[in-house]
Amino acid sequence: MAKILVTGGTGYIGSHTVVELQQSGYDVVIIDNLANSSEKIVEQITKITGIKPEFHKMDLCDRNKLFTFFENNKDIKGVIHFAAYKAVGESAEFPLKYYYNNLFSLVNLLEAMQKAECNNLVFSSSCTIYGQPEELPVSENAPIQQAMSPYGNTKQISEEIIVDQTKTSSLHAIALRYFNPIGAHKTALIGELPLGVPNNLIPFVTQTAIGKREKLRVFGNDYNTPDGTAVRDYIHVVDLAKAHVVALERMSSKKSESKFEAFNIGTGNGNSVLDVILTFEKVNNLKVNYEIVERRAGDVEQVWANTDKANKVLGWKTELGLDVALQSAWNWEKNLEKGILE
Ligand code: NAD
Ligand code: UFG
After folding, report:
1. Which atom of ligand 1 is nearest to the CA of 35?
2. Which atom of ligand 1 is nearest to the CA of 58?
């Protein structure tokens, strides 16, 4: 069983990926400082898979601890690096917090990996690097646009740092550029855990439906889209998690065509905010209280993925639709309300 390090493994996408890795036969070690997650997630993962992942509460910015960890774990065959701060709005308010955490943790990780001769990395990137693309669906060859937030900039800079490191070391890396991850595991034992008022659409929808929020605000209905609301490519988090397993396998079986590769990980379909609300209402048989308000600053009008490269080269494609994702998000919200993590 190959041993894989998952940084940020108690977080939203990380926890789902740990489950998929374990179920594919990998031995998983998690490092997370719990800045945006809970140690209870380790138990939840264990409930799903029957295997307790090794967990280390550690800040990746702590170089010495990280180096010692790698010295003691020389058998790690690959790393999936999720750990980062991700709130776009907060990053505009506290840019240094984002540059420090997201970039120092990456630099430390790359250095520790090099020392330990651990040469396979999967990195969490984002479609935010494309800004508002001129051509839709957007492919990996689209130009990277000036970042609209410090958070987005950390993803661009991180990709550049990784590219440079692959040029001068034995590192192989795959950047997965996620579109909009949503939903929860079918067991409803893990899911998204927004701290405070959610920024993202789906947790705001589920919290409004359950009565935690009075009203969902739909940011703008005057976009140049079929119903006027903004369009995104919403991908089920379990499909996204599976892409990480495939990416690791590509590197460990030496199939990479170059030392750095990037793949769009989306469904290939665009859905508007109103599509999401209506689908959520339909599949869960309930109503969501919402109103149309002004556009949100910094939002792009529409973006969805060209997934040809991931489909053909990676041999990965999505299997779960928007309806299944929105049902799972609701089941997870109901479990949270019941106090599943308390
Ligand atoms: P998340 O906040 O749920 O998970 C990130 C985890 O990293 C958290 O558990 C947090 O405690 C941990 N962490 C943060 N800084 C750390 C540090 N210095 N040391 C150790 N642990 C640290 O976020 P997520 O939604 O699971 O996102 C995972 C990754 O995917 C992030 O890199 C994020 O930027 C990227 N991403 C997310 C989205 C999205 O919409 N969720 C979209 C595109 C890209
Ligand atoms: N929206 C609302 N009301 C809300 C929240 C969101 O109308 O309360 C709208 C937004 O305006 C946008 C759409 O729903 O049109 C999706 O918004 P999200 O905040 O859920 O997602 P974004 O596309 O803005 O950004 C997300 C992550 C970023 C990541 C990006 C691409 O937050 O970190 O996807 O992966 F970079």
Report:
1. 11
2. 20
Residue 173's contacts (CB-CB under 8 Å, 6 or more residues apart) are 120, 121, 122, 123, 162, 163, 165, 166, 259, 260, 261
Tokens of 150: 């410090």
Token pair of 245, please? 């397993």
CA end-to-end span of the chain, whole Å?
A: 33
d(Cα 127, Cα 158) in Å, to the nearest integer?
A: 14
Kindly list the catalytic residues: 151
Gap between the Cα atoms of 231 and 90, Å rounded: 23
What ranges do the domains of the chain cover? 3-183+237-266+306-318
Distance CA 53, CA 46 (A): 7
* Number of other CB atoms surrounding residue 229 within 10 Å: 23
DSSP secondary structure, 55-77, as one string: EEE--TT-HHHHHHHHHH-TTEE
Each residue's pLDDT tens digit, 73-114: 999 999 999 999 999 999 999 999 999 999 999 999 999 999
Q: Specify the residue for token string 């140049």.
A: 224
CA dihedral 86, 313, 235, 217 (to 10 degrees): 60
Q: Which CATH architecture has domain 3-183+237-266+306-318?
A: 3-Layer(aba) Sandwich (3.40)
Query: Three-class SS of residue 48?
Result: helix
Ligand showing the shortest atom-to-Cα distance for residue 216: 2
Best of 7, 13, 101 for a ligand 1 pocket test (most atoms within 8 Å of beta carbon): 13
Measured from CB, residues less than 6 Å from any atom of ligand 1 are 8, 10-14, 31-37, 59-61, 82-86, 101, 105, 124, 126, 178, 180-181
- Residue bearing the CA closest to ligand 2, atom 2: 218
**Which of the four pLDDT bands, split at 50, 70 and 90, describes residue 195?**
confident
Which residue ranges have their beta carbon within 6 Å of ligand 2? 86, 88, 126-128, 178-180, 199-201, 204, 216-219, 230, 232, 273, 296, 299
Peptide bond into 137 cis (omega under 30): yes
The verdict on pTM exceeding 0.85 is yes
Asked if residue 150 has a cis previous peptide bond (ω within 30° of 0), the answer is no
